[in-house]
Automatic annotation (TrEMBL), chains A, B:
Enzyme class at the top of the EC tree: ligase
Subunit-level organization: Homodimer.
Main subcellular localisation: cytoplasm
Protein name: Aspartate--tRNA(Asp/Asn) ligase
Highest taxon of source: Bacteria
Residues noted as binding ATP in the record, renumbered to the chain: 228-230, 237, 489, 541-544
Residues the record lists as binding L-aspartate: 182, 228, 455, 496
Molecular-function GO terms, alphabetical: aspartate-tRNA ligase activity; aspartate-tRNA(Asn) ligase activity; ATP binding; nucleic acid binding
PROSITE patterns from the UniProt entry: AA_TRNA_LIGASE_II (PS50862)
Sequence segments annotated as region (Aspartate): 206-209
Length: 595, 595
């Protein structure tokens, strides 16, 4: 048996003790980080959530305690009573907060023994992620993960205090609900009371928060789990957390102003970083033009230049015909990289191919000539124009993609990010925000031969574009906005449609008829007929935001108990088989999947 | 089409304006609470979340605006621009915060029209709950429900700020997880990626919070949705919210001290009520003795008295034989109620029968005699002893239940509550708390012929009772504690087992062998072998707590979008049919239920 806590009461945490405590009797409790014997004395680094203190078992203080301390191993859980003492001058550890003192122990309780952990609880760990997920409670003991969780807590506390002060009401919306038409796949929950029916876990509380505006709550927020049954190829989780907000009687400027203040408050509280200037803002069209993608990383330059007009009549038929067919030719000048090897260029070409670019043309600018398979196709005038447009100087290499606008932009936009990574242009300690506004309302889905909402079907069109809704839907901009940080979208939202007639018009543009609309979200359409205020909102992805705050590469590092890419929990073995009786009560059965 | 928000910006809420604003130009936005025409002028009570302001459309100010205002009906959503003006002296409404002023409107925008709502948006509503749940967004416009939601928000903000200040870290635990062995029925979620397997929605984050203690987080909290697929006969919801806490290196006193401070902070912040004294505390045994149930309502007396010793040898064989067979005879003296009619007594007898009491004996104490079918069976000594024990005085009526202890206590305990309701002894504005401690560790389940955990299998036994664990389990007390308010359990918790050997002993007492334990929660048992701190915690039911704070009778009144007793959402029509393709992807199908 281990020792009981009994009447022992902790007096301090393991980070607090310093020279001012010398001579005091104190009680510490924590884990054995490290134990060493030196000259018949046992030294233990005792660790709790806050820090580490050296505690000393010296037989000259208590032989029985020293004897008992022989048993101690790493990760044992101890309670010790003792006197704070100055360390000998040559033993002072200036790198430790408590490095000037140690505790001479006169009472020891061993609350818990510990088997040798499958990996060392150290700052740097080389165990596989599989083993670390299986023993997540051990991995969470490491400073890095522990600090991530605390940063997450600080983030949410900041959100709550900031929004509370601005008059937002935290209202819980249901988890067992009806499928929301957000596009992604729902998680279903079979109903026992209503056999044959299913609840869906929410992909977002979108409709509920709009109904709360109809109910008059004016300013709502919630930090809420959302669920998407997607293939987890990217850094996604089946359940993720949103900071979800909605406001009545506001325009996009107001939503953005409050959201921006919130993000600034978080960075101030969690990282002590100030952003005195307003975040920059650009339209979606500008982002596409300059960066090729709608979430530009502004920590570096390498902007895309449209050279379609210059090459439209060039002898290089690949470029000319693309332009002729409504495509785009854009280029990036990688300054000073004219020494890129054939292998490097091939790698970049393969990279661009992932984004469907059929090729990656390039020109190296040498002192005396342009070195390139395609240089010969350009006239002197075209060369001069390219030189001006792209600021070409000796030592540069310029990359071209020529394709349909969507492919040109995405391939070159991604290439821009890749080049920045390879060239070391990214400062990991920099945070560059930008708002993106004026998104197109619709995009045309070639496969389904119909328009899709770029945001979601409840996003309002720009008031000035209302008359183009039916006649020219691709020209209609929406009142949506995204906030981008270091090339990652951390939040987005829109002003919503609050007029039931306009909502029906937009649904019709999306090919959703009255019957289907009624079936899917008739309750929202009906609510809009009982007095709905103008309203809009925004949601931030908490996991991604905290990931960026903690300078982590994966959201798994900022989630206490994440799932694998196969949506399993390696610690609890979820999901698992259900008992036959459970399925019987739900009136469902499992079937052999169709191959 | 309705009007656009455009450049109109709200300057004030509808509760703010008073005499100090007279002469100012302001903008209000809100709903039409009421409209009346008087002398060619239109008066509208404009309502927003905060309050109501009277706005006036006078043709002498603007004929076009007055003309447009003709269209206004109840629940229309308006934006108005106008000048604050003093009301004529005889029109001042002292009962309204803004009753001294009105706003003379010179610009009107109609943001949204409203059909006639299915019920009036008034403080008192006589519509059925069915129609109110269907149009929940309209019901939430009523002051009562709106204030309940705001009280809920204040409650959770208080919890977060209080616990943050005490060093608790808010950590999210998974929603898609493995079945926790809490006894109730799980909601299952079929997995698509791992076909044939199921996640369970958590009944509580019990195991995860214990793992967070093993991980060293020391103080954890979370306000979290939990799920139980129970029959909703009582005032239950499929999803409910817990304030969930766990602490390391503490005993029950510390957990109770922090929890009590939390509850006091909530009552202070939400209701401005102080509780300067510590909450009383009684053992489970005392609660059963004095009140018959473990959640006594202390707002009134009517305590139960055990008279088994007095009646053990009485000629009244019913009593005597119950005592002989290990039963209990207990009584309540309803003072001054000797004039209860036969009908009243019959009703109480029926009430007691619901709790399985086979009869309800009674004696009316008259000036000159005891009037009762059973009085004749008692000797003078027995009568004198009953008189002393029960403080019998002329005008009293005393009720007896004689049965096995569990039945006697529960029937008479419930009768005590019923008598208090009938006699008007309950002060609705009073809040009486008590802690209940020293619960039994186990109870014997006659049906399953085995011991069950009264709390849950991870609750620690009293350290002083450890040696009785195998030899006399029913005598073992646990380190569990409940907090009871006005007869309702609002929270409960325990010190947990942190020693894997002790955990296995307790599981063995419950008839859970090593294999079953490993299968169900092997990850917890394993975690306890890697260094687990002594720890304990508590969870409050947020819904019930807010219900009591708001003096509501049902938790549905403090949940924004509650479900019916059949677990359906009348507004969204959840649950509903799933598409065949969805079920196919999940490799499940619905089957005809077994009758």
């Amino acid at each position: 048996m281990t020792d009981l806590l009994g009447d022992m009461k902790r007096t301090h945490s393991c980070i607090e003790l310093g020279e001012s405590h010398i001579g005091q009797d104190i009680v510490l409790m924590g884990w054995v980080q490290h134990r060493r014997d030196h000259g018949g004395v046992i030294f233990v680094d005792l660790r709790d959530r806050k820090g580490i203190t050296q505690v000393v078992f010296d037989p000259s203080i208590s032989e029985t305690v020293h004897e008992k301390a022989q048993e101690i191993r790493n990760e044992y859980v101890l309670g010790i009573k003792g006197k704070v003492s100055a360390r000998p001058a040559d033993m002072v550890n200036a790198r430790m907060t408590t490095g000037a003192i140690e505790v001479l122990v006169d009472e020891l309780r061993i609350f818990s023994r510990a088997k040798t952990p499958p990996f060392q609880i150290e700052d740097r760990v080389d165990a596989s992620e599989t083993i670390r997920l299986q023993y997540r409670y051990l991995d969470l003991r490491r400073t890095q993960l522990k600090n991530n969780m605390i940063a997450r807590h600080k983030t949410t506390m900041t959100v709550r205090n900031y929004l509370d002060a601005k008059g937002f009401v935290d209202i819980e919306t249901p988890v067992l609900t009806k499928s929301t038409p957000e596009g992604a796949r729902d998680y279903l929950v079979p109903s026992r009371v209503n056999q044959g029916d299913f609840y869906a876990l929410p992909q977002s509380p979108q409709l509920f928060k709009q109904l709360l505006m109809v109910a008059g709550f004016d300013r709502y927020y919630q930090i809420i789990k959302c669920f998407r049954d997607e293939d987890l190829r990217a850094d996604r989780q089946p359940e993720f957390t949103q900071i979800d907000m909605e406001l009545s009687f506001v325009d996009e400027q107001k939503v953005m102003e409050i959201s921006e203040g919130l993000i600034k408050a978080i960075f101030k509280n969690v990282l002590d970083v100030d952003f005195p200037e307003p975040f920059p803002s650009m339209t979606w069209a500008e982002a596409m033009e300059r960066f090729g993608i709608d979430r530009p990383d502004l920590r570096f330059g390498l902007e895309l230049k449209n050279v379609s007009d210059i090459v439209a009549n060039a002898d290089f038929k690949v470029f000319a015909s693309v332009v002729k067919n409504g495509g785009l030719v854009k280029a990036i000048n990688a300054k000073g990289c004219a020494d890129f090897s054939r292998k490097q260029i091939d790698e970049l070409t393969e990279f661009a191919a992932v984004y469907r670019a059929k090729g990656l043309a390039w020109i190296k600018i040498k002192e005396d000539q342009w070195q390139s398979p395609i240089a010969k196709f350009f006239s002197d005038d075209e060369k001069e124009a390219l030189k001006q447009r792209l600021d070409l100087e000796p030592g540069d290499i310029v990359f071209f993609v020529a394709d349909q606008p969507k492919i040109t932009n995405e391939a070159l936009g991604q290439l821009r990010n890749e080049l920045a990574r390879r060239l070391g242009l990214i400062n990991d300690n920099e945070f560059k925000f930008t708002w993106i506004t004026h998104f197109p309302m619709f995009e045309y889905d070639e496969t389904e031969k119909r328009y899709q909402a770029l945001h979601h079907p409840f996003t309002a069109p720009m008031e000035s574009d209302l008359d183009k809704l039916e006649s020219n839907p691709l020209e209609v901009n929406s009142r949506a906005y995204d906030l981008v940080l270091n090339g990652i979208e951390i939040g987005g939202g829109s002003i919503r449609i609050h007029d039931s007639e306009l909502q029906e018009r937009v649904l019709k543009c999306l090919g959703i008829g009255k019957e289907e609309a009624k079936e899917k979200f008739g309750f929202l359409l009906e609510a809009l007929t009982f007095g709905a205020p103008p309203h809009g909102g925004l949601a931030f992805g908490l996991d991604r935001l905290v990931m960026l705050l903690c300078r982590e590469d994966s959201i798994r590092s900022v989630i206490a108990f994440p799932k694998t890419q196969k949506a399993t929990c390696l610690m609890t073995q979820a999901p698992s088989k259900a008992a036959p009786a459970q399925l019987q009560e739900l009136a469902i059965k499992t079937v052999k999947p169709i191959e």
